[in-house]
Amino acid sequence: LWQPRTHQPGGGMLGLEAVRPRGGAHVHYALKIPQGAYDLALHLLESQGVPYVTHPFGRDDVAIYFFDHDLHGIELRESTLCTLPEGESDSIPVRAFQEVVIEFEDLPTAHRRLTEVYGFRYAWGSTTGERAFTAYRFAEEISPDHLNPHTELFCWDPQIGIADAQPGEHVYLTVTYPAHGFEALRQRVGEAGLTVAEHGGSLFVRDPERHVFEFQPIEIS
Asked: With a cut of 50, which residues of the chain have pLDDT below it?
């Protein structure tokens, strides 16, 4: 969580001034809560006077939507991979990060950049239509602590979604990246002429639409 406009470009990390990372505005993201935590989440939101709406995606999949005080949109979805522990009743038990939604004015061009330059794996969606969006999937495997089997980055053209959700602008995202493909990533980003910086082993890339991606190399066995 960053306070807006209270830090120097780069957050004091030497060399990041060029990519100008910022905290995102009106970012929409989805979080996984344990199976059985739906009623608890509603109760806690109501007890704090937080307005919310629900939206059904299936018989046993109903999402909860609400906004925080800074107008970021939060979506809660139950996960079948974990259950609510006994005695947990004083907070919403978030177990995993499911998705984040960011905005691109030129979604077709962004889609090519995300797949061909950054190497993101396209999952589904379309760059055309009344509500154009594309999704990119990470982390297919189920982790030992029972997090969701995948995390997705959703990219929307400018639009208002379910429950008035908006895609985030100038969002800062950290992505772990296979170390064996890191040099190829660095080369593609350079050939694309994008603004980059390196710090602490990470590669920071300023996207033409003002998002900043931090790529962290990770060894994959």
From this structure: 6, 10, 141-148
